[in-house]
Amino acid sequence: MTDLTKLSAAALADKLASREVSSVEATQAHLDRIAAVDADIHAFLHVSERALDVAAGIDTRRAAGEQLGPLAGVPLAIKDVLVTTDMPSTSGSKILEGYMSPFDATVVARSRVAGLVPLGKTNMDEFAMGSSTEHSAYGPTRNPWDLNRIPGGSGGGSAAAVAAFEAPLALGSDTGGSIRQPAHVTGTVGMKPTYGGVSRYGAIALASSLDQVGPVTRTVLDAGMLHDVIGGHDPHDSTSLAEAWPSFAAAAREGATGDVLKGLRVGVIKELPDSGFQAGVSESFRTALGALQAHGAEIVEISAPHFEYGVAAYYLVLPAEASSNLAKFDSVRFGMRIDVPGGTVEDVMAATRDAGFGDEVKRRIILGTYALSAGYYDAYYGSAQKVRTLIQRDFDEAFAQVDVIATPSAPTTAFKLGEKIDDPLQMYLNDVTTIPANLAGVPGISIPSGLAAEDGLPVGIQFLAPAREDARLYRVGAALEAVLVDSWGGPLLDRAPVLNSMGGAR
C-alpha cells in the first residue's frame, strides 16, 4: 500500500493543490490498491475505465492555472444506488444488470464539477435492502478488519472501500442506517444529512420519505468537505430544502481546534438499555461519554419512550414505499425481461420479477403491498405513520433539553458472514439506534469510538442533532475524534492487523 492511499482526503487535496502530487499519481495508487485487495474484499462492482483520463484532465487544468475546488483530483467511490452515465447502475440487483443511465445523479454531477475522480461503483444490498451487503445479487462484500465478517449494509461496499484504503472518499445512501451502521463496523465515518439537505435526484429509490445521500470517509473533516460538494438545493428534487447551508468543512475544523465540548449538553436515552448491546459496544460508548465529560460536556439523561417502536414502524413504512417504488421494474419500460412464449404481459412481468429480484426484495415487496392493501392500510401503514409522528415529537422534546443525542451506532460489532442471513428479524434489529433519525428526518453521524474488548473489532458512537443542524454534528464529531485519536496514538484503522497486511502492505 502506498503512502498516497493512506492519506486523508484533506491531506491528499493539499498535496494535489501544491502540485506535490498529481491526480494521475493519486488515482493510479488507488487503482493499484483496488487491484491488489478487492478480489478479497469485493467492495467494487465496477471500476471506471476513465478514471485516469479524468485525473489527467484535472492535472491539465491545474497546470494551466485554473482555480479548482478543494477536492479537485481526489478519487471517489460511488455507491451503486446512484446512477452514472459512464458506468453501469444496478442497485445491486440482477433486474438492472448492465443498465446505463442517460443522466448522472445530482450528487455525482456535483462531484464531477468539483473535480473529484470517480473510481467506480461500490457493492450494496439489493435496492439498499439489508444490513450486511450479503443481499447483493453480485455476491457479498467482506469487512477489511476480518474477511469472515460483514461490512455492514446496505452500503457495505462504500464503507469497505474507504476502510481498505481503496478510496479516500465514498458516496453512500442511508434509509435506516445504511451509511452509519457500515461506518460503525468498519471503523470509518458516516454521515446522514438532514432529510432534504442533499439531493436524492438520481438515487434509485427505496423509500422516498426515508432515503438520504451522504458521505463515507475516514475523518470527520473529509466528510464535511465532501458534504460541502454534494449538498444544497436541487430543483430536480421536490423534497430538497431551499436554503443556504454553512460550510461543513469549516465546522469540522472548528470542532477539531476549538473548545466546542465545554458546556455541550449530550443526551443519553434512558430507554436504551445495555441489555440489548454487546458488552464491548456498551463499554466503548461509556468510554466515549467519559471523554466528552472530561472535556467539559454535560451528560443528560433524556426520555424517548417511542424509540422502541421505531424498528416496527420503519418495517411497515419502508416496505410500503418500496412496493410502490419498485413497481416500475415491470419488464416493459427498462431492466431485464424474461420472455414467456405465448404468455401475457402479466406472465412476462411475473417471470421477470421472480428472476430479477432476490429473496429479501421479494419479502419486503410482499409485506409492503399487504400493508397498503384495502382493509389493512389504517391498521398497518397508517398506524406506523402515527408512531413516526410520536418519534418526531420525542426528538423535539429531547432537543429542548440537550444539544445532541448520543447512542452506540449499532448494537454489535461486525457479525460473521451467514450468521444472520436466514433470520430477517435479527438482521433488522441491527438498525435499532439509526432508524429513528430517518423516521424524523434529523441528521446523524457515526464516528469510530474504539475497539470492542471481546473481539478487537471497531465500534462507533452516533450523534444526532435537530434538523438543519448538520454543522453541529461536524463540530462535535471532529472534537471527539481529535480527543480519541490522540488517546489511541493514531487513527483506528492503523490498528487493523488483517487490513494492514493486505496487498503487500506492512
From TrEMBL:
PROSITE patterns found in the cross-reference section: AMIDASES
For whether the record's keyword set contains ATP-binding, the answer is yes
Alphabetically sorted, this entry's keywords are: ATP-binding, Ligase, Nucleotide-binding, Protein biosynthesis
Amidase domain span = 25-473
Please indicate if the UniProt record lists Repeat as a keyword.
no
Pfam families found in the cross-reference section: Amidase (PF01425)
Please tell me which top-level EC class this enzyme sits in. ligase
According to the UniProt entry, what is the EC number of this protein?
6.3.5.7
What task does this protein carry out? Allows the formation of correctly charged Gln-tRNA(Gln) through the transamidation of misacylated Glu-tRNA(Gln) in organisms which lack glutaminyl-tRNA synthetase. The reaction takes place in the presence of glutamine and ATP through an activated gamma-phospho-Glu-tRNA(Gln).
Quaternary structure, per UniProt, is: Heterotrimer of A, B and C subunits.
Its recorded name reads Glutamyl-tRNA(Gln) amidotransferase subunit A
Species this chain originates from = Microbacterium salsuginis
The protein's gene is named gatA
